[in-house]
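Work Package 3 (structural annotation) set out to generate three-dimensional models for the target panel prioritized at the project kickoff. During this period the team completed the workflow that converts sequence records into C-alpha cells, so that structures can be stored uniformly alongside our sequence database. As a representative example, we reproduce one entry of 306 residues exactly as it appears in the project archive.
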Amino acid sequence: MRKVICTGETILDILFKNNQPIAAVPGGSSFNCIISLGRAGVPAYFLGETGEDAVGAQIAAFLKENHVHTDYFTTRKDVRTAVSLAYLNENNDAQYVFYKEVPKPNDHFCTPDFQAQDILVLGSYNAICPTLRGQVKRILQAAVDAQGLVYYDINFRKTHRHELDSLTPSIQENCGMADIVRGSADDFEIMYGIREAEKIYQEKIAPFCPVFICTNADQNLKICLPGKVYSFPISPIKTVSTIGAGDNFNAGFVYGLMRYDIRKEDLLRLDEKMWQKLVNCGLYFAANVCQSIHNSIDPNLDLSCL
C-alpha cells in the first residue's frame, strides 16, 4: 500500500487574538499536513524530531493520537522544542514571533524506507536549511531512487529574504528532484518581486520541474504545465484563522493523489477535470482549517463529498 511521508519541523503554536492567548496547538508546515492526512485515513508517517521536554512530549503524543506513524520520529536531549506566538489580526491572518534554535543535524537520523509510488512531502525552511542539507538530500534521493512522488512546497518566509542568494541552489535542487512544486504568489513576491503564475513558472520553476501549483489567497489558483495553464476560482469563506491553510491545501491535494491513485507518471497526462478534482480536495481541506483555530482538519470531516 502507498504511504505518505512528511518531513519538517515541529513547533507549538500559541495563538493570540486581541493580545490574549486563545489556543496552543502543535504545528509546523509538514506536521500540519501529516496530521490531516492521518485523520483522513491515509497511511501517514512523520519524519522529524522534538526536544525531550514537556512540549515535545505533547507533540509526540499528538502524532500518535492522530494515526501518524512515528517510525522516523525522534526526541532529543540536545534540543529544545520550538514555540511560536501567532497574533491574529482583524482578517484572522497571523503575524508570528518565533522562539527556536538553529536546527542541528541528527546523529540518529534514519533514511525512510521508500517504496515505489510513495509520496514525500517537504517544504519551508527545513527543506533548505544549510545545517540540515545533507539529511534533506538523503531523503530526497531515497524517494527519487525508489520511484516515489515528491511534492515540494517552497513556503518561503520573509524572515529568510536576506539569505535568498545562498539558499537559491538548494531551492533549485529541491525543485529539480520534485514532481510537483507548490508556491504562493506571496512566496515569489518576497523572493523575486513577481506574483504572476505564468511568469514564475517560465522563469523559476519550468527549468527544474514541469508541474507548478500557484496559490494566491482568494484569487484564482493556477496549475502550470508544459504548454498549458489551468485556472480555478476560489470560493469565499468566513475565516477564523488562516494558520495552516497552505499546509492543508497540500494535505488535501496529496489526499486526492492517493484517493484517485494518481502516480508520478500520470501527472503530465491528467486532463483539466482530474486537476479540478485534486484542487477541490486541497481547497476543501484548507477551507475546513480556516474555519477553526486548529492547524489541521476536523477529525470527523466528511470526505464522502470529494
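The chain has a mean pLDDT of 94.
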